[in-house]
Amino acid sequence: MIINNLSKSFSEEILHDVKFRLDSNKVYSLLGRNGVGKTTLLKIISNLMEYDSGSIDSNGKSVFFVPETPQFLDYLSGYENLRFLCEIKNIPIVNLENYLKDSNIKSFVDELVINYSHGMKHQLSLASAFLISPDILLLDEPLTSLDPINIEIFKRMLREFADKDKTVLISTHIIPIAHQLSDEILLLSNKQIRQLKNNYTETELTEYVTNNI
Ligand SMILES: Nc1ncnc2c1ncn2[C@@H]1O[C@H](COP(=O)(O)OP(=O)(O)O)[C@@H](O)[C@H]1O
Ligand SMILES: [Mg+2]
């Protein structure tokens, strides 16, 4: 996917001539402060929001966006929600059964979603995303509610997903998370994106980001 000269304003301009590209087999972090425009950019590239000018060449790739606050049918179980998703998206149920076999959501998937914590809902939405299996997976601030063990599991899952010729882009405002998880960092500040290879140490990256944000 190639984004070129993308601009977007609400009452004031949020994105100005933003340019970057997303390649297969890579995990990217969209890093920036609260309110800088991360969610706006993710919604634009997943076609959920209009933009003012510029271009997005998705090169025929499918895109799926997981919002910060995932929505489910609260009075169904996690399993029933996933089954429903499979039905409406024509995904074979065997894919769901296979996914559940090595997933840690199986410990709570039969409980009603109304009783889930924020972190549990996030794991359920990740399950939905993996079942849908888009070429480009966009996750909006997925880690804020995960504990350290789940972050490790999550990191491994994202890597395995990207290794199947796919792309993952997660937004975050937390520098160590961007450093731990991604191959490249898209730093959003002053309405523009700077694309960095993640070959810095965490200290170097922190220094670079705090000087350029
Ligand atoms: N639908 C909208 N209408 C008007 N302003 C919006 C809308 N969505 C976001 N904004 C504004 O755009 C800016 C960027 O928001 P957002 O993309 O949510 O930032 P982030 O996700 O980086 O925290 C904020 O100032 C926000 O108030
Ligand atoms: Mg946001």
Salient structural properties:
213 residues; alpha/beta; Rossmann fold; six-stranded mixed β-sheet; three-stranded antiparallel β-sheet; 7 helices; 26% strand; binds adenosine-5'-diphosphate; binds magnesium ion; ATP binding
What does this molecule look like?
Helix 2 (78-89) runs parallel beside helix 4 and helix 6 packs across helix 7 (202-212). With 213 residues, this protein is of the alpha/beta class. It has a domain at 1-62 and 134-144 and 169-213: Rossmann fold. The model has no long low-confidence stretch (mean pLDDT 93). It has seven helices and nine strands; from the N terminus they run βββαββαααβαβαββα. Adenosine-5'-diphosphate is lined by residues 10, 14, 32, 34-40. Magnesium ion binds at residues 38-39, 68, 140-141. InterPro entries: AAA+_ATPase (IPR003593), ABC_transporter-like_ATP-bd (IPR003439), ABC_Transporter_VariousFunc (IPR051782), P-loop_NTPase (IPR027417). This is ABC transporter ATP-binding protein. Keywords: ATP-binding, Nucleotide-binding, Transport.
Brief rundown of the structure:
The chain is of the alpha/beta class.
